[in-house]
Fold Membrane protein.
Amino acid sequence: MMDSALSALASLAQPSLLIKLAIGVVAGLVMGLIPGLGGTGAVAILLPVTFGMDPEQAFALLIGALAVVHTSDTVSAVLLGAPGSASASVTMLDGYAMARKGQAKRALSLAFLSSMAGGVIGALGLTLAIPLARPLVLSFASPELFMLTVLGVSLAAVLSRGNVVKGLLSGFLGLLLGMVGTSPTTAEERFTFGSLFLGDGLSLVAVALGIFGLAEIASRVGQRTVDKDMVTLGGGWGSGIVEWLKHWSQVIRGALIGIWAGVLPGVGATAGTWLAYGQAVATAKDKRQFGKGDPRRIVGPESANNSVEAGDLIPTLLFGIPGGVPSAMLLGMLLTYGIQPGPSIVTEHESLMYLIVWCFAIASVVGAFLCFLATPSLAKLTKVPFAVLGAGLLVIMLLGAFQEGGQIGDLWIMIVLGAVGWLMKATDTPRAPFLIGFVLAIPMERYYYLTESLYDGFDWVTRPGVLVFLAVLIAPALWALFKKVRGGSQANADLGHRGDVEIAHGEDDESEEGALKDSVWSLGMAVGMTIVFAAALMVSQGFSSEAKLMPTLVGAGGLITGLILVFNELRARRAGGLRGPSWTHDVTLALRMFGGMAIFLVLVMLGGYLFAVCLLALPSLLPVDLPTGLLQS
């Protein structure tokens, strides 16, 4: 164990690994400044770059970005009052208030040092988890591994803030799309409809960039202005450093809370930072300065939002349960390299695990140091409208999706899923369960097939590990049912308080507050997804008995969940009045963007890339306003 850790540290002396780590750190710092991207956007954009690299170089690049993205997202939160990610919204409350008093450097120094400490403590927690969990992981057989995959998708859906039914439906949809292609048990093609392109399955890069990257750009492309009253850098760095040392206990408590929030699937950085904020409020004797620039409400959440990413890696690497979207992408990349999480990675790739630990710790320190040096320059990027940044990100995403397989079909998949992701975000449907289900679909089917082959009937259910996982799976549902039964008058009494908490929490990385969730859009999405599952259930009946087992289960589960959601949507609209489709300016911009991209791909298929670029460049040369969303965005 110690040999593996020292070997991983020695490997970082290689120039190639150091360069990849440095590139990842710089990319993560820049992406953290852009509102809405966060760790999800950073990993999604950098994921295509890793193809063709060795696993060590790929993870050095991605971990470098993931470790620091929550360090730089504080810059826009403090200077603009517009957090770079949802988890930075907690820091914004007191950080922005401090900056408006002319103490921006004080607030930023508190945040940078706390993020650095949170990353280092999180890496230490991951280091300690490896030897402690090793005996447990090595005792797992195929039944336990199958239950872990089920647990990963289910908990991500159940624990997603917002509508649990929508979260489950999102997870089922991800599982269904993950089964497109060749069956891992019979080598039979499923849901390909005779297409050679779909025979290899959907690309993880295209899916991740579409459901999160394009959807985020489409939802924010209308942001063409910035705050003209942005505060300037003021106040000394030194006072913030001294104050950070004074509140060291809050830093440690926040980091430990972040690790715990990362271990729990579906909780994420946003909830972790609010938990750290809650403990800061609960343990404070003097609360008069809260919301007015109190340092305790900066150091606790900032240490939590970095350590939560390290805690997220614990269940991802050791048990194959991604706790959030970035870790789901990392898990997908592990599977792409043929590295199975769990017993395989513990026994055969232990040095890679420790390399991840070292990269996370080093990146956290280097990222904080660079933020101190580059904050004046980084602050200028916050003045650039997202509509301008989005155009460049769009080009990067298109190139990234195309370079993996070199097929234009991946771009079509990305555009279609980008529209689906935008609709899911607008209707308040969690997207994290979708990606986690997509990544875990094939491992889930493979482990279930092995379990059925090795055990008679359902004898495997009686194994102690399986029973424990079943209890963990059922516990949240029973708790929710218990709270619902207890509801009644108590729920009415707590309504005002709960509303305050939900407003305070703001947007979540995985379950955003949907702008169209109360309109016909939400009902239409529920009906559309229900039809998809019904069609998949019918098509799967034509497969062989082994190949149709999981598609049938997923199709039936998705159909039942979809019908429940449709019923809930109809009942809610009958009680509150049916709203028509909310055709806002943002909807128009999103439609133009996706329509423009589709037109571009059609032109590429008809006349080639150069022909398409020249044709779409005409609006900039002629006084004609062509309806190409790609240019107008």
